[in-house]
């Protein structure tokens, strides 16, 4: 009978680099998106974490500020 030769698998990517890639994926998954305090939809926590607003509510807030600033001189 012939004996089959066992060949060690060729390492394409070093295990250190593979482990670093796996850890990088995990850190990306851990980032959670917060909920908007006004409407409850997802908001990007890193962009405006202090406000906890989604982009729509944040835009409405900015528009309201601009409108209030434009009306102030007329009231004086």
Structural overview:
This protein is mostly helical and 76 residues long. It has one domain. 49% of the residues lie in helices and 5% in strands. It contains two helices and two strands; from the N terminus they run H-E-E-H. It has helices spanning 15-30, 55-75, and strands at 34-35, 42-43. A two-stranded antiparallel sheet has the order 1-2. Strand 1 (34-35) and strand 2 (42-43) form a beta hairpin. The longest helix has 21 residues, at 55-75. It starts with 14 loop residues before the first helix and ends with a helix.
Average predicted local confidence, pLDDT: 77
Count of helix runs? 2
Shape: rod-shaped
- Secondary-structure element pattern, one letter each: HEEH
What's the main sheet like? 2 strands, antiparallel
Oligomer: single chain
Strand content: 5-15%
**Helical content (DSSP H or I, runs of 4+):** 40-55%
DSSP, total strands = 2
**Residue runs with pLDDT of under 50 for 5 or more positions:** none
Domain module tally:
1
Strand order of the largest sheet: 1-2
Rg estimate, integer Å = 27 Å
Global structural class: mainly alpha
Give the termini separation.
Answer: 104 Å
């Amino acid at each position: 009978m012939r004996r089959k030769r066992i060949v060690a698998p060729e390492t394409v990517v070093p295990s250190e680099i593979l482990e670093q890639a796996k850890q990088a994926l995990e850190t990306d998954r851990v980032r959670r998106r917060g909920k908007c305090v006004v409407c409850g939809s997802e908001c990007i926590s890193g962009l405006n974490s202090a406000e906890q607003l989604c982009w729509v509510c944040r835009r409405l807030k900015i528009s309201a500020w601009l409108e209030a600033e434009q009306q102030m001189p007329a009231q004086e």
